[in-house]
Amino acid sequence: MKAKYRFILAVFVLGLLMTGPFVVTTLLVWVDMKEAERESLMQLLMSRLPIGVMMTVFGFAIGVFVLNKLFKQYVEGLLRMAETLRLMLGANRDFRVTPDGPPEVQQLARAANDLAQQRDVLMDDVEAQIATANASVEEEKNRLAALMSELAQAVVVCNLDGRILLYNNRARLQFKALAQGPTSVSGGALIGLGRSIFSILEKNQVEHAQSVIVQRLAAHKTAIANFITTLRGGQLLRVQMVPVLTPGDSREGMSGYVLTVENITRSIELEARRDQVLHSLTEGSRAALGNIRAAVTNLIDYPDMESELRERFLKIVGDEISGMSQRLDKTMVEFSDSIKTRWPLEDILGIDVVAAAQRRIEDKLKLPTKTEGLDDALWVKADSFSLVFALVFLASKLQDHYEPRELRFRLSSEGKLAYLDLIWAGPAMSSETFYTWEMESMQAGGETSPLSLRDVIDRHGGEIWYQREKAAHRAFFRFVLPVAVPDEFQEEERNQSSGRPEYYDFDLFNFSDHSIDLDRKLSDLTYTVFDTETTGLEPSNGDEIIQIGAARIVNNRLLRQEIFNQLVDPERRLKPESIPIHGITEDMVRGQPNIDVVLPAFHEFCEDTVLIAHNAAFDMRFLQLKEERTGIRFKQPVLDTLLLSAVVHPNQESHKLEVILERLGVNIESRHNALEDALATGEVFLKMVPLLEEMGIVTVRQALEAAEKTYFARVKY
Amino acid sequence: MTHRILIVDDEPNIVISLEFLMKKEGFEVAVAGDGDEALAKVASFNPDLLLLDVMMPQKSGFEVCEALRADPARAALKIVMLTAKGRDTEVAKGLALGADAYITKPFSTKDLVLKVKEMLAA
């Protein structure tokens, strides 16, 4: 029953209570009375009736008033409290009941508030625990990613569809080194989160390895598979695959795999050379030896042969022997690197060895050192520990015997040989002294080594000698070491700044389908945000692209490491007035690849992604005008942040990129460079996705339709 | 009756020695410098035994051996392969293709003479 009806009922009951007993008593007395008594009672009552009625009405009114008051405070007050309690339960956790009304109700309110307080503390605690757990998971992921990125092996993690979830810096460099073609990203060795590994490795081979692993898992064997694959450029890669197993399910539950990739082209080449040497020394000698042996046997067995024949046999012996000697010499010269089995040496920059030796000499011996004529691009093959020890050992010997004021280092090379010189000023030393130094076990700065200087030199397949520079009154020890040819990307690695890269996205494990489906959520798709710089604003009037900058958005994250940034030779002169805008000069574009080369590479970079650009119609027009010439068509859907901004904020006047950036609170350091603008556009897009969602624009199709309806969509280029 | 021996090798330095040696041993000797010449000489000279080098320009010793073994009329012809290729696999190939003996360089001339005599006696 509703509160209102209950109130009416209560009033009615009150009325009954107030009048009922009097009326009933009067009635009973009336029935019991004689006629005369009734007469006098009537008279008595009638004369006092008004006052009685008045008193009754007055009492009733007070009763109703009290009832109303009680009703308001207890019934309606509690109803109100119930509403606020509901609010506290759901929408607004921080809301509290205001204690109001009679003390009992206030007590109830306070008790409810206390309960809510207790609940909040509990919930906060749970939330804090969840946050901590999430943070530690995140931290573990980061640690793993950091670990991976420092590994010297190239590591790539893929899900079962071959999509890349993680790769490390080494993998990036290794595949980059494999890329062919003039631009930084072309050549079918594209590595990127969410990209397919099959653009790099042969799909059949990867799948075969996968099935090998599944079989091995089923047979309870170590789940590992190896294969060697040849790339387009003739490079050989050794790939090892181990499975990523679904947690809790130790068998068959494979959710992806880890690939360690090693480029073995060089070691295979070395192997082949060694084989060649062996071959030329064995089989190559057999024939010659056979000829000599037969001739010599004849000479011995038939001493009385005619002199002419004897001469011929002797000539055979002479010719063959000199031929063999020549072959041997040639082999030694050509293949000396391949023949020697040495201590495993690493490729190291010569200056790094010198710097390490300087530090130790100054530290342990308190002997000042300097350098002169350092070839800082010289790589050597060295066991740096023993080499540095040898240098410190010599320094300490010199200090003991000749007390030089300082030592100098020099680094130079000649052909395949690197010279590392340790120079000092002082009297001549005897070769016997040096000979004993060479042979004794090394000791320096309180440390000893079981090796002698000679051992160290032999380990390097090198040499050492003592030499005087008479004119300068000084002498030096010259270490001869083999020159190393470092891998191309090792050099590059040194110059890399060490920002923590975003090379991983484990959420992609559950994210297989990357095809462009217009009905998928905006936040689920992979995008390429791009921007172009051009010679001018009229594509149909001969203006050309001079720079393309692009980055990828995968799993709702802008990947600043996976970028495309290429200057383009427009094959026409730049307009002087445009130079201050894009900051690109004639010198910068000259010698760059032209659009015919860059466009296919960019097209490959964008594969399977939705394009995003600010004022996309402008950029797309430039790309479309090249369709005929290059045969490259960009068929994927294109989202325009300018139009999307007009969708989200229809009442704003400006939708320029810088205005939107400010409006959405995106801070960008520098702008007006294709890559920077592309990145800014990407940030803007990511900010817009939730705003669009609020408006019920969730899918790409909805976004495209909404954009089309805006006023700005009618501008044509 | 003196046995006829055909020496097939493109290296004159070994041919001289072999020719000298075989003549001293009392054989009738002819020489061929490559595979094609060898096949022609087999037809004209009709040897009992072939000293056949494997590594020759144009036609290798293996091919010559195969061609001769394909001719049933030459079934009695003994073939001794002489080669600088000393790998097991090549020895196996030579014997499989029908050579009667396979001798790797450098060889002892004494052993070679013994082998040749033994094969011709059989």
> Which regions of chain A have little confidence, pLDDT < 50, spanning 5+ residues?
489-501
Please state the CA-atom Rg of chain B, rounded to the nearest Å.
Answer: 13 Å
Q: What spatial order of strands do you see in the largest sheet of chain B? A: 2-1-3-4-5
Number of DSSP helices of chain B? 5
Distance N terminus to C terminus of chain B? 15 Å
Could you name the CATH topology of the largest domain in chain A?
Answer: Nucleotidyltransferase, domain 5
Give the helix/strand layout.
The complex is a heterodimer of chains A (717) and B (122).
Chain A: H1 3-32, H2 35-89, H3 103-150, E1 154-159, E2 164-167, H4 169-178, H5 203-218, E3 225-230, E4 236-245, E5 254-263, H6 265-301, H7 307-339, E6 346-349, H8 350-365, E7 369-374, E8 379-382, H9 384-402, E9 407-414, E10 417-425, H10 431-439, E11 441-444, E12 447-452, H11 453-459, E13 463-469, E14 474-482, H12 488-494, E15 527-534, E16 545-554, E17 557-567, H13 579-582, H14 586-589, H15 595-605, E18 610-613, H16 616-625, H17 627-630, E19 638-640, H18 641-648, H19 657-663, H20 674-694, H21 700-709
Parallel strand pairs in A: 7-9, 15-18, 18-19
Antiparallel strand pairs in A: 1-2, 1-5, 3-4, 4-5, 6-8, 9-10, 10-14, 11-12, 13-14, 15-16, 16-17
Helix pairs in contact in A: 1-2, 2-3, 6-7, 8-9, 18-20, 18-21
Chain B: E1 4-8, H1 12-24, E2 28-32, H2 35-45, E3 49-53, H3 61-69, E4 78-83, H4 88-96, E5 101-104, H5 109-121
Parallel strand pairs in B: 1-2, 1-3, 3-4, 4-5
Summarize the structure.
Chain A has helices spanning about 5-30, 35-90, 105-150, 170-180, 205-220, 265-300, 305-340, 350-365, 385-400, 430-440, 455-460, 490-495, 580, 585-590, 595-605, 615-625, 625-630, 640-650, 655-665, 675-695, 700-710, and strands spanning about 155-160, 165, 225-230, 235-245, 255-265, 345-350, 370-375, 380, 405-415, 415-425, 440-445, 445-450, 465-470, 475-480, 525-535, 545-555, 555-565, 610-615, 640. Chain A has about 725 residues and is of the alpha+beta class.
